[in-house]
Amino acid sequence: MAKALTSLRIDHELVRKAQRVLRAKNRTQTIEMSLETVIEMEKHRRFVRRYSGKASRRDFSHS
């Protein structure tokens, strides 16, 4: 995937904390991983909202 050089005003302490949590190698990887995480969280939220309350107890029985 092509990458664009972008200039941002960003809180360096916030990036440093995210980099540590994500175990990212550099700022670019930190930001990319953070964006990917936000996208996956939204997919998960939509999935849960879509299927929430649609199962019954018997759907989980192990007869």
Distance between the termini: 49 Å
> Which range does the strand content fall in?
under 5%
Number of helical runs? 2
Q: Structural class, from secondary structure content?
A: mainly alpha
Please state the average pLDDT score: 91
Catalogue the unreliable spans: none
Largest sheet: none
Which overall shape is indicated by the principal axes computed on the Cα atoms? elongated
The helicity comes to 55-70%
Q: What is the radius of gyration?
A: 19 Å
Order of helices and strands: HH
Number of strands: 0
Write the layout of secondary structure elements.
Elements (H helix, E strand, L loop, with lengths): L11 H11 L4 H25 L12
Helix pairs in contact: 1-2
Defining key terms:
single chain, 63 residues, mainly alpha, 2 helices
Task: Describe the overall structure.
It is elongated, with a radius of gyration of 19 Å. It is built from two helices and no strands. Helix 1 (12-22) packs across helix 2. The chain is mainly α. The mean pLDDT is 91. It has helices spanning 12-22, 27-51. It has a domain at 12-50. Helix content is 57%, strand content 0%.
